[in-house]
Amino acid sequence: MAGSPEPDSADSQADPAEAAVTEPEAATQPAAPEAEPAPEAEPAPVGADSEAVTEPVESAAPEPAQPAPAATPAPGPRPGKPGSARPTPAAMAPRPSGPATPAAVVAPPVHSTPLAEAAKFARVEEDGHVFLIVDGEEFAVGQYPDATREEALGYFVRKYDDVAGQVTLLEQRVHAKAPSTDMQKTAAHLREQVAERKMVGDVRALEARLDTLATLITELEAAEKAEQDAARARELESREAIVAEAEEISGRDPSTVQWKASSTRMNELFEQWKSAQKSGMRLGRGTEDALWKRFRSARTVFDRHRRAYFSQLDSDNAEAKRAKEALIRRAEELSTSTDWGHTAAEYRRLMDEWKASKRASRKDDDALWARFRAAQDKFFSARKNANEAIDEEYGANLVVKEQLLVEARQLLPVKNATAARKALQSIRDRWEEAGKVPRGDMGRVEAKLREVEEAVKAAEDEHWQRTNPETKARTNSALSQLENTIASLEEDLAAAEKEGDARRIAAAREALDARKQWLDMLQKSAQDFA
Whole-prediction pTM value? Predict the structure, then answer.
């Protein structure tokens, strides 16, 4: 086109079929063409200023030509040169004019504004200059030279449709509650594109939608923050629980800790910590460092206590082992003794010392006990063999004592204590002459003989009580005194009856009856002594 400047070298790499859109001042200053493609049938528009923005072309087919509006909107006042910021919309290939099919959030929705509708917001001159009308005010959009008015208008309408499609995509993301990252930045960028007035369409409607989006994005960010705060609180609580349990385990008294179970649990807590560090929510370096220091400190204390405990345990085991080995040496020295009674007592004392001594490790303690028990078994086995030989030798003596027991049992019940004593003494003499009996029968036969001896002794005691002169004399004296008392009471009763004193009569009779009863008891006792 005559008077249009040539593209500069900055955009020399652009496709020759692409057009550079110009603003009204393009005839007076050179400018680099935009890398915005136009349909193949459209001429290349001329750039309007020194900036050129490269925009890729969509491969969709050109939009069918729309009939020109019946009347071009009345021109308004020409605006001044727009700002230097240029939009960077996506490709502006023609799109179908039908309704857009709902698309996934990841794909930009298709938006197409009919030219008849767009003409309400634009004025197009014969030379291809296009002006946007907003609330009666005109804004120079650019020039699309060597083309019809419909083609020039359609080019800038496609820019509007691209921005509108991006707004729709952002709305879908907001309604789908997608992550709000960069949503505000995207909305601000779209608002800048709309504010540049380099497109044709209902920009006020776009601005209203962007205002609504700003509010919704703010609410979405607040909801996300609340959810993140709740998740962070849960994560913090989980980490705190790990640390608190580790501290509780490390704070136990080492003497009461079940080290195997506690070590396993501490390792499990460490694995939980590593998993939370790897895949859990970040809590902030300061918080995580503080929690880790506490957890590491708890593990360090636990390991120190465990090492100290097992070190002391090894020392105690060694000491216990030495003490029990000394007991084993003494037990082994006694194992060949034939002093059965004294040595058996020594073994009982050694066993008491063994029970009172500390335990060594399980393996050592079992081996030590086997050696100690072997020394005991050697002695007691020898004693058992000796006793069995003695029992065999003393079997005949047992027969004699069994016969003596039969003879002794015939003395019961004791009728004559003196005769029973003499017979029992004879049996006792023969019992001693018979000699020892087997150890297993000794207690039994001795107990049966003691039963007869106790019965004879009880009979002798009873006889002595009845024939004791001192007891008999005391009984006779009591009888004389009681008889005198009864005679005196009878005289008192006779005097009371003579006087007719009922009270003295009752008292005298009561006292007299009591003394007579005592007299009867003493007379029976005297008869027993006789």
Answer: 0.40
